[in-house]
Write a structure and sequence with these properties.
This protein is α+β, with helices and mostly antiparallel strands and 142 residues long. Helix content is 46%, strand content 24%. A four-stranded antiparallel β-sheet has the order 1-2-3-4. The longest helix has 34 residues, at 2-35.
Length: 142
C-alpha cells in the first residue's frame, strides 16, 4: 500500500513540475521576445481565443506602450499559481515592478494574459484586526 502511495505522490510531483516547466518556458520566451521587440512572436504564442480577443495590432500597440512606460524586463520571480489557473511573476523592469499573470492551455499557448503593477503581499495581516471588545473590561476583552 505504501508503495502505491509513494508512486502516486511521485506521479503528482512530476505532473506539477512539468506544469511549472511549461510556464517557465512560456515566460522565458515572453521576456526574450519582449526585450528584443519581437511582438509578433509573442502574438504567435497566443491561443486562438487570445488572438481573437487581442488581435496583432492591439498586441503590438499594447507591448510597445508598455515598453515605453516601464522599459525592458530585467528580472522575474515566480510567485505562485493563483486560483490554480494562472502563474504570477514578479517582474522587475527598468522603470517599474509589475505582476505578469499568464495562463496557458494544454498546447502551452497563452490563453490568459494580464499585467498590473506589483503589490507586495501583506506580511503582517494582524494590523487590520480591530478589537470590537474595547468597551469590555480588559481581562474579559483579552
Amino acid at each position: 500500500m505504501k508503495k502505491y502511495f509513494f508512486l502516486t505522490v511521485l506521479f503528482l510531483m512530476n505532473t506539477l513540475f512539468a506544469q511549472t516547466d511549461n510556464y517557465k518556458n512560456v515566460i522565458d520566451n515572453f521576456v526574450t521576445n519582449y526585450n528584443t521587440e519581437k511582438y509578433n512572436d509573442i502574438f504567435a504564442a497566443f491561443s486562438p481565443e487570445t488572438k481573437q480577443a487581442l488581435p496583432l495590432d492591439k498586441t503590438n500597440d499594447f507591448l510597445k506602450n508598455l515598453k515605453n512606460q516601464v522599459g525592458k524586463i530585467e528580472d522575474k520571480e515566480f510567485i505562485g499559481f493563483q486560483k490554480q489557473s494562472y502563474a504570477t511573476y514578479k517582474t522587475k523592469c527598468e522603470k517599474a515592478i509589475l505582476a505578469i499573470n499568464i495562463s496557458i492551455d494544454k498546447q502551452n499557448k497563452i490563453n490568459g494574459f494580464y499585467i498590473i503593477p506589483y503589490e507586495e503581499p501583506n506580511k503582517n495581516p494582524t494590523n487590520n484586526i480591530i478589537n470590537a471588545l474595547q468597551t469590555y473590561p480588559k481581562d474579559i476583552a483579552e
